[in-house]
């Protein structure tokens, strides 16, 4: 099922603003309509009731009342009706008359209205609709007389049916005017909605741009704080966070620079005395056979540890050059198969421990010394921590930026543990605590990765489905300085 894309914040703000405006306009129009309608009907109602009561009180009624006399009074009352012409009905016992001789009674005079007039002996009214749906105001007023201080009913009741068509038209005109004014009103409301959305979204856009700059490393980015509302508070919080982040990053960078300088200085200072120590241990190694067993063993241990220290110092100096971006490429046109064979021969790995698949004619422009270090570290690491035989496979593949060189180095060991794999290229990382005194410095794979990156390539570590670790080198055939 296709998901509907969420609306933007601007659209939602404008929609919310227009919705509030529409609800407000609708509520106001409804209340105004209700009040105006009630006021119009009440005015008509009060005028008609008051007029009919006054006119009935002015009539001289003599009992018993004949039908002709009742007819005369009804016609007289009908002439004086206001604010609209009335239809008057008169009832006295079984006599029924009206201003329309053919219709002595009407359906708009309900039984409930008759009961209210009879029981209360005062004027009563009711708004009803006839069979055609036309609105009418029906008023009932009894004819009363005063006797010995008491008000008595004569039994004569006059009903007035007042048409409310004019009032209905007035109310309908009000509704139509409200409907016609709603659309222009909402159209006009778009202008303040756009202005409100712009004022709200401006700081949001500023914050987004500032966050993008911050993400690109511009830690000195700040937002101009406007006003004292919640968005201004958010801008101040952003500035404080950016300031604290800038300070933390500066401190970390300074600490990293000091650490790199320390490693470089220590390595440089150790190099000279180590050269002398190595020379002395080489001489002593030659005479170790003439010494007693314990002395010879101690001498060989000193010689071995001095050699490890020398390797560590060289690795530290190499990694320091990468950190200082002082490492350089000395490119040359190299036959890859020949370069691989020479690397294996120098380290006496050209036996059954290493199996190679080296196609003829693959040439690449790279730094021979650094390529030798990369391949030696990968194969040596596979022999030490994996298992023989180690397979070295060279191939080429087409890439987006031209032909690329691919070299796979796979061992026959148990493979790399999943928890170790993310840290395999970390400096000084050793998966096995028992290897802390091994010949490796813990920098070999880190240096290998830096050399590959210097050539514009990548180095990936993983495991083969059949078992064993697999390192894949991917670099362009034409490296650029």
Automatic annotation (TrEMBL):
<dbReference type="InterPro" id="IPR005467">
    <property type="entry name" value="His_kinase_dom"/>
</dbReference>
<dbReference type="Pfam" id="PF00512">
    <property type="entry name" value="HisKA"/>
</dbReference>
<keyword id="KW-0808">Transferase</keyword>
<keyword id="KW-1133">Transmembrane helix</keyword>
<feature type="coiled-coil region">
    <location>
        <begin position="235"/>
        <end position="265"/>
    </location>
</feature>
<keyword id="KW-0378">Hydrolase</keyword>
<dbReference type="InterPro" id="IPR036097">
    <property type="entry name" value="HisK_dim/P_sf"/>
</dbReference>
<keyword id="KW-0812">Transmembrane</keyword>
<feature type="domain" description="HAMP">
    <location>
        <begin position="198"/>
        <end position="250"/>
    </location>
</feature>
<dbReference type="GO" id="GO:0016301">
    <property type="term" value="F:kinase activity"/>
</dbReference>
<dbReference type="InterPro" id="IPR003661">
    <property type="entry name" value="HisK_dim/P_dom"/>
</dbReference>
<keyword id="KW-0067">ATP-binding</keyword>
<keyword id="KW-0732">Signal</keyword>
<feature type="domain" description="Histidine kinase">
    <location>
        <begin position="265"/>
        <end position="479"/>
    </location>
</feature>
<keyword id="KW-0175">Coiled coil</keyword>
<dbReference type="InterPro" id="IPR036890">
    <property type="entry name" value="HATPase_C_sf"/>
</dbReference>
<keyword id="KW-0902">Two-component regulatory system</keyword>
<dbReference type="InterPro" id="IPR004358">
    <property type="entry name" value="Sig_transdc_His_kin-like_C"/>
</dbReference>
<dbReference type="Pfam" id="PF00672">
    <property type="entry name" value="HAMP"/>
</dbReference>
<keyword id="KW-0547">Nucleotide-binding</keyword>
<dbReference type="Pfam" id="PF02518">
    <property type="entry name" value="HATPase_c"/>
</dbReference>
<dbReference type="InterPro" id="IPR003660">
    <property type="entry name" value="HAMP_dom"/>
</dbReference>
<keyword id="KW-0418">Kinase</keyword>
<keyword id="KW-1003">Cell membrane</keyword>
<protein>
    <recommendedName>
        <fullName>Signal transduction histidine-protein kinase/phosphatase MprB</fullName>
        <ecNumber>2.7.13.3</ecNumber>
    </recommendedName>
</protein>
<keyword id="KW-0346">Stress response</keyword>
<keyword id="KW-0460">Magnesium</keyword>
<keyword id="KW-0472">Membrane</keyword>
<feature type="signal peptide">
    <location>
        <begin position="1"/>
        <end position="29"/>
    </location>
</feature>
<dbReference type="InterPro" id="IPR050980">
    <property type="entry name" value="2C_sensor_his_kinase"/>
</dbReference>
<keyword id="KW-0597">Phosphoprotein</keyword>
<keyword id="KW-0904">Protein phosphatase</keyword>
<keyword id="KW-0464">Manganese</keyword>
<keyword id="KW-0843">Virulence</keyword>
<dbReference type="InterPro" id="IPR003594">
    <property type="entry name" value="HATPase_dom"/>
</dbReference>
